[in-house]
Design brief:
By secondary structure, this protein is mostly helical. It has helices spanning 8-15, 31-43, 62-82, 87-96, 104-115, 130-148, 152-162, 168-181, 187-199, 208-249, 253-289, 293-304, 325-345, 350-384, 390-401, 410-416, 432-441, 468-476, 510-523, 526-537, 548-554; strands spanning 21-25, 55-59, 101-103, 126-127, 387-388, 421-424, 449-453, 498-502. Helices cover 59% and strands 5% of the residues. The protein is flat and about 105 Å long. The chain starts with 7 loop residues before the first helix and ends in a 21-residue tail after the last helix.
């Protein structure tokens, strides 16, 4: 069988030995073939061969793991047939059968079976089935709520969320926050970190939410202003054309003047509205970008109270006409929605927002205390029945590998020597807990990591995947120098981190790829991705108003305060 014709980027990914490598592999770019070939090259390296069972390859599914193991085995078999007297290849084919090519859950489960004595878990523990987990969660939650209602602050929290009728919303919030935290390493300490911004006494103007809300308002205002400017240009074009047509139809000077006057009257209101709205959004953008919360709030208030006409065509007396009327109306309507969103972002004064922040603190403390209580009760019930769920595998594995302070344990150092390389597929769907495990298993410098993924294919946010981990490395790691493979560093010298893109598509026709790229490069920006993930998951940040931008900074899914409209003595009334 002939040697595959690798592209320069594929060859660099296969042959690079200069340190950690992050491969951003687009759909159809041959990443599985590259991953297979890299593993085979490591095993058969003439100068620094690696035993097959010293390659830790983590895949996202069991099926992917089985396929990868089969591909590597087939490649070794072909080499063995070409070199029938090479006993090393036959040995590597046998070692491949016990190589840790598996999901992260399977790896952690195996680790717990081997080292359960170092943890407070029974030796005969069993993986919990989903039905058992749901029963135990429901029981633990019922006990947690019963205990939490002894705290007046939690009662206030539950009343606000359930509007005094049911505690289902409060219970769901406890589960929501618990599930979010379980994807983080050392999650118990994170609760204290999330409370810190609420406990500061320097006022709302000095919080991250103040800046993030205004940044989001500025972004929306800019988008709305651009929409209105484009709509105004189209409307003016239609106006000029309508004037010309009116003059052409008229037979006398008087009839021409009358027709033109009719056109002027018909376009006067939409042109005036668009010009006023564009100017308004420009001023809103300026105030928000300058960090002027109070002037912006004062600017928006008359529109919310109905004292000024809202942007858009709602209530317009004349019907919109012209060749571009559909595009003009669509743009104006979208701009109006963005303006409405801005009024929700800056929906109360700084004083009211600060009052909300202070009033929310005891309720958040009570809710976080309930989350800790639920965690303890749920864990006790699982322990009583000798059950562990998938997230337990990863948390217990991390306890084996490092201390709460982030120091690797002696066992971790021993396990680390068992692997010559750590390779992770579908890295875009990794969460923070799993990433911490990979860092523990890699060399101290992390230069034996090989990470493959595609940010655009991250689809498991609902399972707590965190694509921002992939994004952080994309932003921080330098591209592979000249796009060529680096040689192995000298003994005792750590390698560096590098980034490589596999962007050639071998699966689709060039026209299809070009069309899709054109559409999605308009949409898939970092800010759009953040907004989409928050909207899809229903998660919000812990701050006094609901903006996706703040979620990125705080990374906690607690539902925010809901300030009332202007003039309310307390924004907590409609919390």
């Amino acid at each position: 069988m002939s040697e595959p014709k690798w592209t320069p980027a594929q060859r660099a990914a296969i042959e690079d030995r200069g340190g950690a490598l992050l491969v951003s592999a687009a759909a159809g770019s041959g990443k599985t073939a590259v991953l297979t070939e890299r593993a085979v090259r490591l095993i058969t390296d003439p100068d620094h061969p690696v035993d097959a069972d010293k390659l830790l390859i983590v895949t996202f599914t069991n099926a992917a793991a089985a396929e990868l193991r089969a591909r590597i085995g087939q490649a070794l078999l072909r080499l063995s047939q070409q070199q029938p007297h090479n006993t090393s290849l036959r040995r590597q084919r046998m070692l491949l059968q016990r190589a840790p090519i598996c999901t992260i859950d399977a790896f952690c489960l195996d680790l717990l079976h081997k080292h359960f004595q170092a943890l407070d878990i029974p030796p005969d523990f069993a993986p919990a089935d989903p039905g058992s987990v749901e029963v135990l969660r429901a029981s633990a939650l019922a006990e947690t709520l019963e205990n939490a209602y002894r705290d007046p602050d939690f009662c206030a929290f539950a009343d606000l969320y359930g509007k005094g009728r049911t505690d289902q919303a409060a219970g769901n919030t406890i589960l929501h926050v618990y599930d979010f935290l379980r994807a983080l390493p050392d999650y118990d300490r994170r609760l204290d970190e999330y409370l810190t911004p609420w406990q500061r006494e320097n006022g709302f103007a000095f919080t991250c939410w103040h800046d993030l809300l205004l940044a989001e308002a500025a972004r929306c205002a800019k988008a709305a202003r651009e929409l209105l400017t484009a709509a105004l240009a189209d409307c003016k074009e239609d106006f000029v054309l309508a004037q010309v047509q009116a003059e052409e139809k008229g037979k006398t000077a008087a009839s021409k003047a009358k027709a033109v006057a009719g056109v002027n009257d018909k376009f006067a209101e939409p042109l005036s509205r668009l010009e006023s709205a564009a100017a308004l959004l420009g001023e809103v953008e300026r105030l928000a970008a300058a960090g002027q919360w109070t002037p912006l709030y004062d600017k928006l208030t008359p529109y919310v109270l109905g004292m000024e006409e809202m942007p858009g065509f709602k209530g317009m007396k004349k019907r919109l006409t012209g060749d571009h009327k559909a595009a003009v109306r669509t743009r104006a309507d979208e701009a109006a929605k963005l303006f409405e969103h801005i009024t929700e972002l800056v929906s109360c004064s700084e004083e009211e927002a600060e009052a909300d922040r202070r009033a929310a603190l005891p309720r958040l403390r009570a809710m976080f205390a309930a989350v800790r209580d639920f965690d303890a009760r749920f864990s006790a019930k699982k322990k009583e029945r000798k059950l562990l769920e998938f997230s337990d595998f990863e948390h217990q594995a991390l306890r084996l590998l490092r201390t709460p302070d982030g120091v690797c344990t002696p066992l971790c150092q021993s396990i680390r020597h068992s692997y010559a390389a750590v390779m992770v597929d579908e890295y875009q769907d990794t969460n923070a807990l799993q990433d911490a495990i990979y860092r523990c298993l890699a060399s101290p410098a992390g230069d034996d990591l090989f990470l493959v993924g595609d940010l655009k294919q991250s689809i498991y946010r609902f399972r707590q995947a965190d694509p921002s981990i992939f994004r952080a490395k994309l932003n921080a790691w330098a591209p592979l120098p000249s796009g060529t493979a680096r040689p192995r560093p000298e003994e005792g010298t750590a390698g560096g981190n590098a980034l490589l893109a596999l962007d050639a598509n071998f699966r689709s026709a060039p026209q299809v790829v070009a069309g899709i790229n054109f559409i999605f490069e308009q949409l898939m920006t970092p800010s759009w991705a953040i907004r989409l993930m928050v909207t899809a998951s229903g998660w919000c940040a812990v701050h006094p108003a609901n903006t996706p931008a703040a979620w990125k900074r705080t990374s906690c899914p607690t539902t925010p305060l809901r300030p009332t409209r202007r003039g309310s003595p307390s924004a907590l009334k409609n919390w």
